[in-house]
Design goal:
With 349 residues, the protein is α/β, with parallel strands linked by helices. The chain folds into 2 domains: 206 residues, Crotonobetainyl-coa:carnitine coa-transferase, domain 1 (Rossmann fold, 3-Layer(aba) Sandwich); 100 residues, formyl-coa transferase, domain 3. The protein contains 13 helices and 11 strands. A hairpin with a 5-residue loop joins β7 and β8. The protein is elongated and about 75 Å long. The termini are far apart.
Length: 349
């Protein structure tokens, strides 16, 4: 396999340098998890089928960065042997097929752990490896629907899918990446290899922990757009401006709410900020005020205040915002790696 072989000591920078991850080609959360691990220094080797065509959801300038690619025919004995040889040199593996597919290929956890007993075998699915829906098809919206998360997002009239941020990426890829890193840490501490069963339903449910907690103590109304953080509160929602663009308002704390009221020059609602019977009246006043100026005029008006008013930027605008430019949040128009890492600063003199 020559230069395609994975191996430690690649000289990559980052906290995961000298961690080798085999990524079996997939879409959605698997390439995102591999991208994150690669951004942190891991050596990612993606195994793709022979003659595979380009996919923007896996191979674009963001999700596809930082890989070496090996083409193998996993339906042949030679292809499987080459894949197991790569696995034998790796710390972790990522795959996103339906339960049982990798086993039928001869590349399931038992096969791979025979080749590499300390391997962390990361499995990404929507429903999980077990359960009555494990073999059913689905997408992000379906996984969110069963967790309660989708029910809570959107206007009162109907749920709105929050792109695929909550299921695929937050509840899927990031949980997978965390599980893999935890497994590698344990293995390098002398522990055995293990299987990470990352399900988007599990992850999306976990991300909803705050709202289940608030509901349990009577602080969350199980209706959309009726609560503090779901667009129900007039001081935590988006408003249309005179030019049809929007601003986002997040003035929850009393001092921030006071700054918002002062900037809008509306009635003093401070004593009734959390009186939900007054929210419709308050929201109508805010809507009327924001409709009098264009978005960027409001941005300038609230600049330097603590009113928590920001412009809602589109995908073309966001990379050029001065704060994003100063931090390098985007590189050539695409999101940069996150989070950032810096060496500890000694306080010794």
């Amino acid at each position: 396999m020559g230069d395609s072989e994975a191996g430690a000591g690649s000289g990559r920078a980052g906290p995961l340098a000298n961690v080798v991850v085999i990524e079996f080609d997939a879409i959605g959360p698997v390439p995102f998890a591999a991208m994150m691990l690669g951004d942190m220094g891991a050596d990612i080797v993606r195994i793709v089928r022979l003659g595979r065509t380009y996919s923007a959801s896996a191979d674009g300038p963001a999700l596809g960065r930082g890989r070496r690619t090996v083409e193998l025919d996993l339906k042949t004995q030679v292809g499987r042997a080459d894949a197991l040889a790569l696995v034998a040199t790796a710390d972790a593996l990522l795959e996103g097929t339906r339960p049982g597919v990798m086993e039928r290929l001869g590349l399931g956890p038992v096969d791979c752990h025979a080749a590499n007993p300390t391997l962390v075998y990361g499995r990404m699915t929507g429903w999980g490896q077990t359960g009555p829906l494990a073999q059913e098809a689905g997408h992000d919206i379906n996984y969110l629907a069963l967790t309660g998360a989708l029910h809570a997002i959107g206007p009162a009239e109907r749920p709105i899918p929050p792109l695929n941020l909550v299921g695929d990426y937050g509840g899927g890829a990031m949980m997978l990446a965390l599980g893999v890193v935890a497994g590698v840490l344990a293995a390098r501490g002398g522990g055995p290899g293990r299987v990470v069963d990352a399900a988007m339903t599990d992850g999306a449910a976990l991300l909803s922990s705050l709202f289940y907690t608030l509901g349990a103590v009577g602080q969350w109304d199980d209706r959309r757009a009726a609560n503090l953080l779901d667009g129900g509160a007039p001081f935590y929602r988006c408003y249309a401006c005179a030019d049809g663009k929007h601003v986002a308002v997040g003035a929850i704390e009393p001092q921030f709410f006071a700054a918002l009221l002062a900037g809008l020059d509306v009635a003093d609602w401070r004593t009734v900020q959390h009186d939900r019977t007054r929210w419709p009246e308050m929201a109508a006043a805010f809507e009327a005020a924001f409709a009098t100026r264009p978005r960027d005029a409001w941005t300038d008006h609230f600049a330097g205040t603590d009113a928590c008013v920001t412009p809602v930027l589109d995908l073309a605008e966001a990379p050029h915002h001065p704060h994003n430019v100063a931090r390098g949040t985007f590189i050539d128009g695409y999101p940069a790696p996150a989070p950032r890492f810096a060496a500890a600063v000694s306080n010794q003199r």
